[in-house]
Amino acid sequence: MISSISSPNSGSKQPKSGKASESGNSGRRRPPQPQNGNPEIRSPEPATLPLQPSRGSRIRANSPAPSEEVTTQDFLSDPRSAINPRKPRTSKISPSKTRQAGKKGLAAVDMFDFPNPNLERENVSSIATNPNSELWTATPPEPRESRPQEPPARIPGTRSRPNTKKAPVSKPRPQASQRPSKRSAPRSVPPLVYATRLLILGVGIAVICGTLLSVVNAVSRASTVAAEEQTTTGEKNPDAGDSASAAAVTGEVLQLNQELGALKTQVQVLATENPSLKAGVFLVDLDTGSYLNFNGDTAFASASTIKVPILVAFFQAVEEGRVQLDQMLTLKSEHIVGGSGEMQDDAPGKKYSALEVAKKMIVVSDNTATNMMIELLGGAEVLNQHFANWGLRATVLRNNLPDLEGTNTTSPQDLINIIAQIDRGNLVSVKSRDRILQIMRQTQNASLLPKGLGEGSIIAHKTGNIDTMLADAGMVDLPNGKRYLVAVMVKHSPETEKPAQTLIRDISRMSYRYLNGGETPADSQVKIKD
Questions:
Q1: Residues with Cβ < 8 Å from 71, sequence gap 6 or more?
Q2: H or E segment to which residue 491 belongs
Q3: Adjacent-strand bridge partners of 353
Q4: Whole-angstrom distance, CA of residue 358 vs CA of residue 365
Q5: Of 523, 495, 505, 443, nearest in space to 281 by CA
Q6: If we measure between CA atoms, which residue out of 378, 373, 212 comes closest to residue 304?
Q7: Bridge partners of 477?
Q8: How far is CA 6 from the centre of its chain?
Q9: Contact 125, 91 (CB under 8 A)
Q10: 421 SS3 class
């Protein structure tokens, strides 16, 4: 070990720079004087090192300037070489790759304090030249392969200088899910496309509103019809088993608004003039809902008018598949009865199609054909069940025709009710409705209601006549486009049959004139079929 560094001219030679005396290193601790076996370089008084180091002698971690290496042999031959900054021998120390550029070293080593003797030869020149130089480890660091995760190891025996600057901490990159998404710029919509969208939206809203209004209107009309039906036709039979027929009763039949007071007064006057006749009248204007009710809910002997609901039951059976229109029916002896009709003259065993039998029952009011039809449809009990399901309160079939005693009953209101349901298509399909009305327009007896109609009027009706009752009920189409339903039933004695016929014709004429704008029909224009 070298005990001290001295020079014979150290006491007289002044430092080149005048700033050496101003350095703060003059009061630094002198290292202890270790013993050395070489007496040639011993000096009784240690020399003072120059305090102004050369700038080139400072070694930093990232400085490209090479470090100087001084061997022991050179130092013994010329001790001044350790402090001469002109041409020192240096050894290059590879720049540390473990530190970032611009960062200072970890610590400065005290002069002559070498805890590791192997470092003496490499660092003595730098220490002698500049005591404040910063040292790094003598061994060159390994090449950097990746960014170090921990700081470099501290050199033992060195003093750590506090870092004045902290290494910038790199911020972690945001993940793809954390990065704010870029909103695409809204595309401009062409005016034509915008207008088309508004049009489609408006049409959709209009359709929805129309549907809602239709539903509300249907519900209100159904409730109104149910209330009117309860007051006019009575409550429905609770023992009804035909769900389809029951649904038809609760559906729309007639929407009655106000009663025709003036026409009712005229009818009352006619009834007062014929005290021996008991009349019942029910009339409904299908266009306005105005009506006339004069004893309309009174039960009368039905006579042949009961054949209208029987015809409706027949077409219902056809639609349900229980009966075929071309189904062949055989005439039996128990079917043959007197009264109106042509089939009573035929021999038993003759066959007819079901549709032919139904037509004869209405067109010529054949009683024999009616009895065949009653048997085909299941009898009186089955038919009465249908009548009750349809809301026909007074309509009851008790005996086969001709029922001269008048046990079978109905009312003007029931007859209007069944015809209205035929017209509305509540009980049968539209196809069956057209067939029923076509058959009823072919009724041959035109001596009652048709007698009071004007030219161009069309009526689909059915008459009834026994010794004590005369009736006619049907739907009238006027030349001006109006339609109305009318049923007139008159109870009379055998001696007053003609006044009963006249009363029915007069009521028909008043109704036609009232609803047709005051026109009075000419009786000669109406052809009465006998």
A1: 89, 121
A2: strand 483-491
A3: 328
A4: 10
A5: 505
A6: 373
A7: 458, 483
A8: 104
A9: no
A10: helix
Residue with tokens 């559906």: 251
- Reduce the DSSP state of residue 408 to 3 states and report it: coil
Percent of the chain as helix, strand, coil, to the nearest 5? 40, 10, 50
Structure tokens given for 285: 């204007």
How crowded is residue 487: how many other Cβ atoms within 10 Å of its Cβ?
29
Task: Kindly give the pairing relationship between strand 134-135 and strand 291-294.
Answer: unpaired
Q: How many CA atoms lie within 13 A of 340 on its CB side?
A: 23
pLDDT truncated to tens, each residue of the chain (530 aa)? 334 444 434 444 444 444 434 444 444 444 444 444 444 444 444 444 444 444 444 444 444 444 444 455 555 555 555 555 555 555 445 544 444 444 444 444 444 444 555 544 445 455 445 555 444 444 445 545 445 455 555 554 545 455 555 555 555 555 544 555 555 555 676 888 888 888 898 888 988 988 888 777 766 666 654 555 554 444 334 333 333 443 334 335 678 899 999 999 999 999 999 999 999 999 999 999 999 999 999 999 999 999 999 999 999 999 999 999 999 999 999 999 999 999 999 999 999 999 999 999 999 999 999 999 999 999 999 999 999 999 999 999 999 999 999 999 999 999 999 999 999 989 999 999 999 999 999 999 999 999 999 999 999 999 999 999 999 999 999 988 899 999 999 999 999 999 999 999 999 999 999 998 765 554 434 333 33
DSSP tag of 251: S
Bridge-based pairing state of the strands 291-294 and 278-285: antiparallel
Taking the CA of residue 365 as centre, how many other CA atoms within 13 Å lie in the half-sphere pointing to its CB? Answer: 22
Q: Are 113 and 31 in contact (CB under 8 A)?
A: yes
Q: Determine phi and psi for 159, rounding to 5 degrees.
A: -95, 135
**Residue 292: which of 267, 274, 269, 270 has the closest Cα?**
267
Token pair listed for 330? 């055989």
> Residue 490 pairs with which residues in a beta bridge?
279, 470
For residue 321, which phi and psi values (nearest 5 degrees)?
85, 5
Q: What does the buried/exposed string (b/e) look like for 488-527 if buried means 16 or more CB atoms within 10 Å of the residue's CB?
A: bbbbbeeebbebbbbbbbbbbbbbbbbbbeeeebeeeebe
Q: Specify the DSSP element, H or E, that contains 301.
A: strand 300-301
